Amino acid sequence: MGCPVSSRRTAAVATALRWGAHRFPFVEDEVADLRAFVPPGSVCVDVGAEYGLYTWVLATLAGPSGRVHSVEPLPGPHRWLRITARLLDARNVTVHRAALGARSGRGRLSLPMRRGLPVHGRAYLSPRARTGPAPMPSSAPPAPWRPPSAPSTSWPTKPVWSG
Prior knowledge:
With about 160 residues, this protein is of the alpha/beta class. The chain has 4 helices and 8 strands, in the order αβαβαββββββα. It has helices spanning about 5-20, 55-60, 75-90, 160; strands spanning about 45, 65-70, 95, 110, 115, 115-120, 125, 135. The strands form 3 sheets. A 3-stranded parallel sheet has the order 1-2-3, covered by helices on one side. A 3-stranded antiparallel sheet has the order 7-4-8, with no helix packed on it. The protein has a two-stranded antiparallel sheet with strand order 5-6. Strand 1 (about 45), helix 2 (about 55-60) and strand 2 (about 65-70) form a beta-alpha-beta unit. Helix 1 packs across helix 2.
């Protein structure tokens, strides 16, 4: 029996991203080497997922028994992730529109601009956002979003929660 259609679609995107990791500057080199850290069945969190360069690779590596939580607070990239997850039929991916931080509350995102274009990968939560501010969604959770507990973790999580 072959691979389910959803797995084939996501796997095709993940293969292209791993291939491009050492060839294109917009795909980080680490994407090609995630296999060493993500066994099947893993629960993964892509913090500041932007357009999902890590999300689709993690979804393939975690497999149907694993989960990927893709966390992106900016409206444009969040919408892209939701649509792409649906098109890929990536059933093990959950997209969250939230910012992660050490404490709960609301804030504004500073979205830096370079050459007239937004630099989503450099957005940050700031009480005094001046450059391209984007308000946090009113549906943001009242407390920082926390991923479900996993039996084991390959990555240190303390730096993520401490900001």
